[in-house]
Amino acid sequence: MNESTHSGPLHSILPFLAHLYLKFTGATTRISSKNKPKNAALIYALWHSQLAFMLYAHREMGMSVLVSKSADGEYVSRILRKFGYNTVRGSTSRGALQSLMQLIERAAAGFPVAITPDGPKGPKGKVQQGVIYVAQKTGMKILPAGLYLSNKITFNSWDNFELPLPFGKAVIVYGEQIAVSETDSIADKAAELEYALNSAAREARELLRAYP
Questions:
Q1: What are phi and psi of 34, to 5 degrees?
Q2: For residue 141, how many other CB atoms are within 10 A of its CB?
Q3: Do the domain assignments include residue 4?
Q4: What's the total number of domains in the chain?
Q5: What is the pTM of this model?
Q6: Where in the sequence is the domain holding 22, given as residue range(s)?
Q7: In the chain, helix, strand, coil percent, each to 5?
Q8: For a FRET experiment, which of 29, 74, 96, 133 has its CA 20 to 30 Å from that of 64?
Q9: What is the 8-class DSSP label of residue 159?
C-alpha cells in the first residue's frame, strides 16, 4: 500500500470525525437504488463530487481506490480505510502509470475497484483515460453510478463537491456495464462512460423527485 508522507494530528482527528459523521448521515438517510449489481468484481465509476456519500454506500466491499498523494488525499485515504477500502496513492492523470499498474494488480487479485474519473482535480465531469486503461488491461467491466441527494451542501469547489446532510433521501442509479476490449478506442470509451455517468445522475435526480 502506498502511503503519503503527509501526517499530523489533524490527519488522525479529522478522518475520525468524518467517519462518524458519514456513518450517522448514512444511517439516517433513506436510500433507494436501481440496477444494483450482484457481481461486485467490477470497476465502479462515479463523479468526484459524489464521493462522500458513495463511499458510505459501498462500504466494507473490499474495494481498491486510487487516491491523490496530496495532503487532502491523505485525509480521504484515511477515511476510506475506516470504511473498509484499500487505497492506492496516485492519480489517473498523465504520468501515473505506476499507480495505475498497482490498481490493475489489485483488480487481478479479485478486488473490485472504484475510480472517480474526473478526479482528483478535474476538469469537472470529464472522464480521464486512466479508468478506461484499467478496464482494458484487466478485462473488468466498468459500472457507471449516479447519485442524487435531497439534503446536501454543494461547495464552490472545482467539482461542486456534495456534502450529504442527515435525515434525507438518496437515490443511486447503476447504468449498463461497459466492456473495453484491447482494440477499442480509449477516447471513444471515455466519451461513452462520460455519457453514461451523466445519464445515471439525471435518472437518479428524476427518481428522487418521485420517491415518497
A1: -125, 135
A2: 16
A3: no
A4: 1
A5: 0.90
A6: 9-209
A7: 40, 20, 40
A8: 29
A9: T
